[in-house]
Amino acid sequence: MANTKHEEAVRALKQAGKVVNLQVQYRRDLHLRRENILHRLSWDDTPTTVATTPSLLPSDRLSTINIIQESHQNSRRIFALKLSFVTRTPLVPNEEDFEGRIIEIRSHSARHVLTLRCANSLEADAWFEAIHACVEALLTQALAQVNLILGQNPQVRRMGWLAEQSPSDCGRWRAVFVALTVNDLLIYDSVPAIKQVLKEWGHFRMGSSNDHAPAYSNKVVQTTARSFPVIAGLSDVISFTTRTGTQEGIRTHLFRVETHRELASWVKTMIQNTYEACESTLQVNAPCIWQERRCELNIHLERGLSLNDSAGGQLHWEYPFEAIRVTGDDGKQFLWIEFIGGGVNKN
């Protein structure tokens, strides 16, 4: 019976007689020791990873979580919090977490997720607030380091992790790393390495970012408010929506944040950055078709809107911003503007 399975051994004992002689041999409890679960957890802060992929992650003991098992001195793991993403609500809905006891921490590469389950929701809230405060403080340090590396040219106003909801992905949330400079809004799947930051942010090249747009083309159109009643699982999402003008049409992004403080900071920074980008750009020209004619729409910060013929440069109409009554678009290619005293809409 030494090489039999448990079910086979039970079956053999049941079929045996009334008296069964068993030979028992003492063996050390090597096979009875529990496997240390910490050895199976993966993270990005191993020495080889940091050495081969330069990033903004220093070997700072103050920016780590230490998980220690008292019975074994070697059962200890360190998880770097700098540039990680901590969420109170899992990005992938967990049917077992109906009590709201889970906290998720994603590594800066977004490849690894550390899921912590607390005893109750109150304890989960307390742990989340403490960890989130550390992550925010470390993010402020990383932002200062990036601007020091870039020499404030361009200046990075804000960066950090957000959760984005894609309409084409059945409304699921995904983690994105967003960087807002004085010139551009860049969206990544993970934290870019230092070489990538110098290449893209320092020289205004967007080669590897999943999405990018000039700062003046972004607009915050909707946010959740503190005054709304919070209903767990229904209205507890703190989010803001942006619309961005691109060559392919209007792109809408729905971003989720974890706290109202984050929401206020992101919205304020983006609005202020858009205004400053418009002041520095002063004028934007866009080719268009109006009444079956090829034209050019000019948007000037001080003079307003004007439409010129692409061929001869003939001025068709010109209005100040104060004359705009209403505007609209289909999100793809059509734009219509109604001016006060303009008679008909300008499509």
UniProtKB/TrEMBL annotation:
Domain of life: Eukaryota
Alphabetical list of SMART domains matching this protein: PH
Cell compartments where the protein resides: Cytoplasm; Membrane
Gene3D superfamilies given in the database record: 6.20.370.60, Pleckstrin-homology domain (PH domain)/Phosphotyrosine-binding domain (PTB) (2.30.29.30)
Major localization class: cytoplasm
GO molecular function terms attached to this record: structural molecule activity
Residue ranges annotated for the PH domain, each copy included: 155-275
Membrane topology per record: Peripheral membrane protein
Record's keyword terms, sorted: Cytoplasm, Membrane, Repeat
Record flagged with keyword Repeat: yes
Gene Ontology cellular-component terms listed: cytoplasm; dystrophin-associated glycoprotein complex
Alphabetical list of Pfam families matching this protein: PH, PH_17, Syntrophin_4th
Name used for this protein in its record: PH domain-containing protein
Originating species: Meloidogyne enterolobii
